[in-house]
């Protein structure tokens, strides 16, 4: 099975406009260092995780149908591209009830309702839900937003874990860690060099999470321009992987 990381970057993307740091300067010169805003696609069930503000660019390249949309939280870098989904008349959206309220409001304001058969499926935290595939939505600490969560998606015998944006408190969430155990793929937040309590994971804590989950493959994503360069990150997190835009991961 394949999982595609569409966007590997943080809210400002790389290059961030007007920033001349090493990462942003390199990304302007060489496009392989660009990082668009975070998003993932699972071809097997035609599922998109987080409609990034770069969704139009992602869809141009992906050129595939989307049927299921999972939203981790209502920060603009994770759902600002939701109106781009208007090319799909029928989709199913999943997330916490508060997150889905924002999505529904965006549909109303930017897309319309009468011709679009979009269905909303609020997911209770810390419970498995069955839609043909199985999904578990877990709560994470990600201030100042009220509700944010990650997903564990089970498709037949494959388990995919996506933390979304999370603070290092996830390392103490025994119940969620137990559910994540031995996943086929872990995609985890590694925004900055150092963790910010209740907001984002840094390098050391991202590695600690990977060591606890023991997934067959681990990819660190949602990377800020303030983090190390791609090559240096690769060195620091070995044997784990560092996401790139449009990276295909076989699981
Ligand atoms: Zn984010
Ligand atoms: Zn920069
Ligand atoms: Zn966020």
UniProtKB/TrEMBL annotation:
Q: Which InterPro entries match?
A: Metallo-B-lactamas (IPR001279), RibonucZ/Hydroxyglut_hydro (IPR036866)
Give the matching SUPFAM superfamilies. Answer: Metallo-hydrolase/oxidoreductase
Domain (Metallo-beta-lactamase): give its ranges. Answer: 36-222
Under the heading Gene3D superfamilies, the entry gives: Ribonuclease Z/Hydroxyacylglutathione hydrolase-like
This chain belongs to the protein called MBL fold metallo-hydrolase
Please indicate which superkingdom the organism of origin belongs to. Archaea
